[in-house]
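Tokens help. Consider this.
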Amino acid sequence: MAKISLSKLRHSYLANPSSPDDFALNEIDLNWSDGGAYALLGPSGCGKSTLLNIISGLLHPSEGHILFDDKDVTDLPPDQRNIAQVFQFPVIYDTMSVYDNLAFPLRNRGVPADKVDQRVKEIAEMLEVTEMLRKRAAGLSPDNKQKISMGRGLVRDDVNVVMFDEPLTVIDPHLKWKLRSKLKELHQKVRVTMIYVTHDQTEALTFADQVVVMQEGEVVQIGTPVELFERPTHTFVGHFIGSPGMNILPADVRDGGAFLQGHHVPLEGKVTGEAGLTQIGVRPEFIRVSDQGLPAVVRKVSDVGRHSVIEAMIGDTSIKAVTEDSPPEQGENIRLAFQQNQTRLYRDGWLTSEAAT
């Protein structure tokens, strides 16, 4: 296990990058504690797999350094970094038994047979595949093959980090939650540093203690799942995380206050900064139908099971609210009240209102 530090890391796939737009990864400084569970979250093309490949040693960064326990490993090849990696498609040997697949990384390093047997059985029990140990891997279902692939990454007790690159992509949706739960359980048992790359917010938020949200090669926020939901520091985070995502509403700022379609909107605290595109951010969960609030007209109501999503219009601005009560009818005139301590101002995408003290 290792603490992982990234220092002034940048990468371009061009030989001679000349502008910030030439970089697939902008400057990144990160510190991940030994034994933590982390996720890199973002849409396709945001740079998360590039970053993972740099950490693993499959890709050399254009600039900056990677440190494991304060030791610079930037120039070390993958086999000298003591890293285990689990990919989208299970990497196992179909002609081998499950036991031999799990044992292979240990035997390859000359681990004594009794130690191999002990460790394989420990991991098999954690994965709940003990009864499969003598079966050939070729006959396993896709989810069990991915379990074995995970086990191959976890069986060594000398790894610095286990990295997962979209490991549930090929798994049937109804089985994904089982593997997500199993992976979280495994981390709690083995306490090895884990980094999980995904575009799926549910996977990231249920697995990780801390999530790194990326957009266009830039880290826009690092935080716990609760922090990302309750106080996104960038409108991208607010929109990307949550279902539905945060309402991002056009705002006029004057006299120290924010206005939406001419209506004053109380914010969480003082507005900071001056020039720039200003927007109000408030999650649908923090808007309620009330006798007081901003006048709106219901455009559509969607029943999503435990609650309903109301889509309404305030002037020509669309806004969504979540309610567990009986929803209003389409076309009905209503008023929407924003929870003040969850209503924030963003300038050029970045949080600019201060939390009330």
User: Anything to note?
Assistant: Residues 235 and 349 are 5 Å apart (CA to CA). The radius of gyration is 24 Å. The chain has a mean pLDDT of 91.
